[in-house]
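ARCHIVE CARD
Drawer: 12
Card no.: 0347
Subject: one protein chain, sequence and derived structure
Cross-reference: see card 0346
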Amino acid sequence: MKDDIFGQVKIVPISQIGTFEWAETSAATDQEVVRHPFLAIRIEDGSFLLLGETAVFENLKRFGVKHLPLQICPSGQVRLAVGRLEIVGFDFRDLTRLAAQHPEQMALESVGSEIPEGCVSALIEFPEREPLAIHMRHSTRLGCPVPLEFLFRSILTKGRYLPEVELAGSSDTPLKVVVPSARLTIPRFSLDDLINASLSERYFPPGIVRASAGRRVLNVDFPTSVLMSDRSTAEIESFLRDLIIYREQTCKTSFFEGQLYLLNR
């Protein structure tokens, strides 16, 4: 089983890797190793779709990395999670103003109202107000719906968004808890939607769709100096295989079967 999962780890030219979400703006930082292989799938045109860590990917790209280690997962083993988000600094007036600016793209309706043809719907909840459905036009079905991008761009100009965290039993935490101005539940999206986002360059906001796989290789710690070199893909792939064999022979690897929850990647 270990040989099977190690076989998923490949070296891929960075030019053959696409993303489904837009990159967060951040300064490129030097780093000596790529800690984990990036989770990805192979798509029909022969390229690869990155399933997360977009900001890290973009930083490495700016840093001059030419190849990356990927864990290429079969599409059938990928699970997507779309949870509720906590919105900070974006209020009801901001939403109504946004909807008024784009009446052909989005409408605010009561929860349970019929979703118009060619639209998807999100649910937003403001304190002391009835929840609202945000019907958003998505007739092309190519990547991220345009009004969803409008919504998140507007949120980011006013504040930010975070995954909702259940704090049951933790009311006495000494940490400062963020008080959201709203809670947002976005529509469900499929792996095909993510692929279409990459191919059409209609990217999703970062972090709203989270991908995972049943098995994962971590801590490859691959030197960026090798990934930045002019060596061929085959040579770098050979370096990777030697690295894996060395760590196996020196008993530096561990294999866990079942669920593993990492609190800090």
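Annotation on reverse: The two ends are 24 Å apart (CA to CA). Helices lie at 2-6, 54-63, 92-101, 146-158, 191-200, 224-227, 233-249.
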